[in-house]
């Protein structure tokens, strides 16, 4: 930020943007008195930020105005939230205090501003060890507002969205921190709170800066497809529209195309190409239920479904009934994928007006409908999740960094539905075991469990549950928890109960663990001195800075001392055994940081780098680096989930390496996944082309064939990304090959 006199042009832009906000606020405010509060907040913030500019050079006040616009237009919050959004940076960036806000605007607006200020403090300073206990309490305190005043978190999401929109003006190292935080914390949070528009925009911005070439390529393909298919989509909609009119429905139909991020994510997770995404287009039908009809709101959705499937053939395995079983963020809709008469698959989403409001504005609309007296079977799903988060937050043993991991895992965990012996439906985390289910029912049932019956068949407690399973827990009066349970329990609640049970034996576990650590350190010629233990605490991500905690986890069997030699050497290697390289392919650039890096420079004896095994970047990939205290830089692809997790929690370690170009004598291992039609000699043709024509070394080659179709992968060594892309292009031209895509090893 900088300070300078505003020009007439600046004041004109401020006036224009505020006029837009005021118009949006006027529609949301109940009366003139509420609108007056918004005006007062703008006047105060405008004066407080007078003369201050953002990195982009624009007046700073434009940021709070933009955040307030998102708050009212995208999320649908009222005047207090609009005022808090306008004021949200005043306490952080000026001499005014929360008490000043309280005196001028009252307790509620002041508490919202206070909460927003503390969230920013936590995110900006979470890496400073001396502040950890304060951060933990602040972060818990803020997220606890999910339970009694979710508006703090909703306004913070609006703030983060606008920061993402203007992220181009940030230096690259800070951009990577913000984007990683956004993917690790804010995107899952927006999803859980039902803010799909906010979530989708954040995802697209993340992809645009993490993989710009991929983003631009997918966007161009989407635009070409829209131009080609526009007429076909309109022809698809026409008979549906006519049929719904004939049936007497009051409705509107909207056209939608998958977002670049959702397409990219599907391509990566399913190892497919753009052309293999068959549900690229979606049609959304939003209708107002007939309150005088004998059919319920849900039944009227099914009625619309029957009309559509009477016109078009539908794909039975692509029906998603979130009307009967809403998502845990409150989302309700009926989705089906049907074949148009012109031969393209189109997803149809069926929603009532109420369902659409909740889908677009999330929890704010959900609670608004509850206050209006609308009661549905699943109204409490979102409230249950918020209560579950509160249980985590009030745990006195959880510190700030652990809290981020727990909240993130809880936000991203998928759920499955299982049944009790009496037929009652229960939701539980995907991947949960029969023992997790036992603990979800009652602590004593879990503690005394000896086995389970799933679908009437006897299974061990470690059995992984699947949607639709009927589960009965078998208990014994004298049974008690066992240490080995910790090896397969998946849910935080169950693991916490078992760990608490063994806390009485903590000192014995510490003694055993200390002996094990000393023996393994001795085997690699190390001593358990302060520096070594500190490196182990960092490397194994034990954020409670205590040697006893390390020994306790080892003694209890929770922590295996994998990669011990690497960890005590680098202090920052997170996963696998990274490969050390010493070439000048990277060059760290950071105009705002004092240090610069020319990694591999013969004159630079301070730094070396390792390529992370979790994502295996190659020259040409967009990459991010993490600088350890000993000068080691671990290099990840920017889209790597491990890198996003580290960057979200350790933003001060980010460096921005840059590929200097391929090195002829070096090669990198990558995997290509292939699909196609089998024919005589195709394997020989593929391998001959790779080895002889491209002179590429094959490490592993696996293809499986079934009923004339083959699928498999090739692990091979390439010099750089250009090399790889040429190879993919050439392989795609071989007769019978349908797709060749790079995938994870």
TrEMBL record:
GO terms for biological process: guanosine tetraphosphate metabolic process. InterPro entries: ACT-like_dom_sf (IPR045865), ACT_dom (IPR002912), Beta-grasp_dom_sf (IPR012675), HD/PDEase_dom (IPR003607), NT_sf (IPR043519), RelA/Spo_fam (IPR004811), RelA_SpoT (IPR007685), TGS (IPR004095). Residues 414-475 form the TGS domain. Transmembrane segments: none annotated. SUPFAM superfamilies: ACT-like, HD-domain/PDEase-like, Nucleotidyltransferase, TGS-like. It holds the Pfam family TGS. GO terms for cellular component: plasma membrane. SMART domains: HDc, RelA_SpoT. Belongs to the relA/spoT family. In eubacteria ppGpp (guanosine 3'-diphosphate 5'-diphosphate) is a mediator of the stringent response that coordinates a variety of cellular activities in response to changes in nutritional abundance. This is Bifunctional (P)ppGpp synthetase/guanosine-3',5'-bis(Diphosphate) 3'-pyrophosphohydrolase. It comes from Candidatus Cryptobacteroides merdavium.
